[in-house]
Amino acid sequence: xxxxxxxxxxxxxxxxxxxxxxxxxxxxxxxxxxxxxxxxxxxxxxxxxxxxxxxxxxxxxxxxxxxxxxxxxxxxxxxxxxxxxxxxxxxxxxxxxxxxxxxxxxxxxxxxxxxxxxxxxxxxxxxxxxxxxxxxxxxxxxxxxxxxxxxxxxxxxxxxxxxxxxxxxxxxxxxxxxxxxxxxxxxxxxxxxxxxxxxxxxxxxxxxxxxxxxxxxxxxxxxxxxxxxxxxxxxxxxxxxxxxxxxxxxxxxxxxxxxxxxxxxxxxxxxxxxxxxxxxxxxxxxxxxxxxxxxxxxxxxxxxxxxxxxxxxxxxxxxxxxxxxxxxxxxxxxxxxxxxxxxxxxxxxxxxxxxxxxxxxxxxxxxxxxxxxxxxxxxxxxxxxxxxxxxxxxxxxxxxxxxxxxxxxxxxxxxxxxxxxxxxxxxxxxxxxxxxxxxxxxxxxxxxxxxxxxxxxxxxxxxxxxxxxxxxxxxxxxxxxxxxxxxxxxxxxxxxxxxxxxxxxxxxxxxxxxxxxxxxxxxxxxxxxxxxxxxxxxxxxxxxxxxxxxxxxxxxxxxxxxxxxxxxxxxxxxxxxxxxxxxxxxxxxxxxxxxxxxxxxxxxxxxxxxxxxxxxxxxxxxxxxxxxxxxxxxxxxxxxxxxxxxxxxxxxxxxxxxxxxxxxxxxxxxxxxxxxxxxxxxxxxxxxxxxxxxxxxxxxxxxxxxxxxxxxxxxxxxxxxxxxxxx
Length: 727
Ligand SMILES: Nc1nc2c(ncn2[C@@H]2O[C@H](COP(=O)(O)OP(=O)(O)OP(=O)(O)O)[C@@H](O)[C@H]2O)c(=O)[nH]1
Known about the structure:
With 727 residues, the protein is mainly α. Among the domains are: 162-177 and 179-189 and 260-276 and 511-711, P-loop containing nucleotide triphosphate hydrolases (Rossmann fold, 3-Layer(aba) Sandwich), CATH 3.40.50; 429-503, Four Helix Bundle (Hemerythrin (Met), subunit A) (Up-down Bundle). Helix content is 39%, strand content 6%. It contains 30 helices and nine strands. It has helices at 2-17, 24-39, 53-57, 63-66, 77-80, 110-114, 126-129, 204-207, 228-231, 256-265, 293-298, 310-321, 323-326, 338-343, 350-353, 365-368, 379-384, 394-405, 415-427, 429-443, 450-462, 467-483, 491-503, 533-546, 561-574, 588-601, 619-635, 654-666, 684-692, 713-721; strands at residues 184-186, 521-526, 551-554, 577-580, 606-609, 640-648, 670-674, 696-700, 708-710. It has a nine-stranded mixed sheet, with helices on both faces. α18 (394-405) crosses α19. The chain is globular. The termini are far apart. It binds guanosine-5'-triphosphate. The site of guanosine-5'-triphosphate (GTP) has 27 residues, from α24.
């Protein structure tokens, strides 16, 4: 017992001594944060280990973004976005005339730089020159992201567009004189662009979750005189049938003009605060686009067909091309050097382009950087411990490979692109997992036979690919198997090539739909309720602004009360002016008429027309849409017109039914698939192309401003059938 007691006492004694250790730990940690604080501010030093992906890679960001990055405090990026001022649309006709935001110089050249102009290779050639590849060296500013959505200079200048269209033009249809409600132009403070990630979902959304059901709006009477005519069709809630007044004449809200003129008076309007002087167009030319759409879109034949593009440059280049490159052997293969990507020099967008700006680095701030102690370590170390939210997981590596397969070099890749692909891949994840796993299991049995083919068809149907497409793919597979055995490991690659074929409409030039420079392009956005039309317009507007297009938005959704407000928010985010008529039940055709007039007067290049959601079986609403289309055709005769149907991917095959009617009414030229990040069955994309014979122009994978990208069949298929999954 004594022994036990003694032992117990000793034990207690030891325990009593232990606690002392703890205090130290916290102290040590406490230092860390302290040290970091000072480091935050100096973002410039390219070598600094602290990789601020957003600031560095999104070179695009204008001044604004700079602040947010460092102190990730929960300050208020949101507030500054001016989101709250929903009703900025000064109703008063006296409001000054906003001007189409001038696109900043560095913006990426959507048409010339990205698409249109250049053939596939142009951008790549530099590859040869790429050799500057000295990893650390800061070669890169070429494409580096610069894309400074700099403050789209807003020229308040408002030419007397007015008289452009004297009174009522010759539109046979009359636009309801919808109240004298003056047309308003939502002033857009020209906020530079995109905070890539910040933009939260539009608040408005909730107001009207807008399901598919026809918005039974209460209302009506007043302006609805004509509505009765069509009531017949809709059994339910005749009253609810809101915007019935489809009929008739488009009386251009002649009042519109008056609205703009005032601004003119405002004299020169120096007010355009933000916009510095700007003869912006300057450096933009060669500037590097944030994402090179042209390359993305043209890259429908990656690794497999490398000969077309890269081939010439890579293999033979060395020999024929000359010595310089000699030293640099790489530059071609699909091997993505993620380290190089991570270590690439940081380029605060715009600045790099302007040499003068460079001098700034030396300023005092340097000293502030004192915390250089950490940098010495080595960039590699930094790379090893990447930044927040950017992980070298399977998604990242896969994205990098896909981009590399398209000829993208680490220096040209942006975080935005990586992020986009990751989102797309994640969005298609559900379908992919099911499809890929089953196909692999099936292929693992050995050579493909009749049983396997049948099973495969079932898998495709489950993915919503549609019967026709499934049959076509199987027919091709059968044909292939007939000629020679198809090894199991070739099944997926074969499927990919088949799917890609199905996604590409014969004769369609995916780069051809980019807005034409120097002329008016009108993009009419249609679809049923809640599919994402307004959101898509906001995203496209942002993209267009960054691409340097003079853009304008027409708030043609006069039915949903919050639509105009929602659009003006997007307008603020993207720096695009919104033309709207706040009066309830305004005739959308009249709004569009006015918007076209304004667009002509301002030399706008891209006019985005929003429309109210409507079910394809509501005749009066479809007639209303037809009227809008007619107005566009008549008033914008020389314009390049695109009519895009927005389809919610989660609606699956149902969406196809809508398309047929919308096609007859609005003359569709393409489709935008939204919500691919949801529980969509990605196969719907294949069915759309096959059944509608319409090209997919954009795909949306989220609610943020940069969650929309031009459709690329290669990326889509890779995301759908990638078996990369290491995780
Ligand atoms: N997850 C996801 N949500 C999206 C996407 N595109 C739009 N949304 C959301 O879908 C909802 C409806 O979007 P809206 O743009 O208002 O749809 P709409 O077609 O204009 O609606 P109506 O005018 O009522 O016909 C909003 O909550 C959007 O944020 C997308 O690609 N992914």
